[in-house]
């Protein structure tokens, strides 16, 4: 790690923030077309960093007109400046969960759910306390329940490979993720409720309508203007998914009575608690797993048999020594932990962070200081922060052992996927993901179960429509040793 990645000195030169917003209307449209079609997301930022010789720049962020009133942001594109977005004393997180626009509260039962609240709002404290309490009460359920769900997943994958010579991982993983989450919070198999097997499809549509302004269907170039007009000009109305959301809400309301009872003890109305529970389970958790599990499988599979052999040896040795898959066993798997962190680093499941400056402040990059004024929107593009070459050697390479050992563990403070440093734990006073530790745990269990059952695997990947990669498993080799 370079010494320049240490906290910047106050002696760094104070410079004006470079970049341009262009014309108030057409500048935003131009940037939007560049971002989605002409350049693509990474190239959009990379060309501007190169042009302005700065990792802190002015730009417009999608969707712009007519969905977002103000698309102008100060973009933070390095590991040093990015963490200012975690500081609730400096930035406000009110209604910026998805960026410069705010989806209709119709999608969440008329409530501004916890994700859209700033920590300064009293209801944020009560709702996040409620979330942390739920997760703590389910602690002993996580591992056995997820292992049960994974057993079914691997059976389904093997059946697909046997019959079709390959298995599309994403849809099978989505079904597993939703089954786990519904059974975790409602203690019931969703297939035995009114949701049936349609839970993932219902959620996907509900999320897609809210996030459409940030997405593209990746059309051929001659259709880009139609794609832009369809997705980025006007928000989709809630009524298109009203019946699906109603079924989801009613299923959670009917089967999560103990959790909703607990919410009332925190002073939260039952209906508000249930809409927040649906958002926590379906948007925060399911959508995160929908993005991250294909990413994890993609990078691990592409790393090759040498890493697979090392993972299998570590996992099987520790499980045999500990007598099973336990929290203690998982904690001893240093390579397995590192591989999960490396997956979260190289391709974070949530690439964007936003916050509005609460006051005038000075933000540092590696080599300069910049003043941000009160009221300006700050945007962080996390893949550039966690792939910062001044912090990580060979940042664009997947290095499975990157976080092993004392020096490797020091780099964990630069892994930001959970809306804070990996070395921090969520509290009611911040916006860090309340399920941060659960996500890391599930990813470890996923790898453990995979390499207890199999020696190696191969995949084919391509870019998906959303943030996730599209992954197809083409082979699985059964474990030859235990």
The CATH superfamily of the largest domain bears the name Cytochrome P450
Cα shape: globular
Task: Please compute the radius of gyration using only Cα atoms.
Answer: 22 Å
Arithmetic mean of pLDDT: 95
What does this protein look like?
It is a single chain. The model is unreliable at 1-8 (pLDDT under 50). The chain has 2 domains: 1-102 and 349-385, no CATH class; 103-348 and 386-478, Cytochrome p450, CATH 1.10.630. Helix 1 (26-38) packs across helix 2 (41-52), helix 5 (169-186) runs antiparallel to helix 10 and helix 10 (270-303) packs across helix 13. By secondary structure, the chain is of the alpha+beta class. The protein starts with 13 loop residues before the first strand and ends with a strand. The protein has helices at 26-38, 41-52, 122-137, 142-164, 169-186, 199-211, 224-232, 242-255, 257-265, 270-303, 305-322, 327-331, 334-346, 382-385, 405-410, 436-453; strands at 14-15, 56-60, 72-76, 91-92, 167-168, 352-357, 361-364, 369-372, 377-381, 454-463, 469-478.
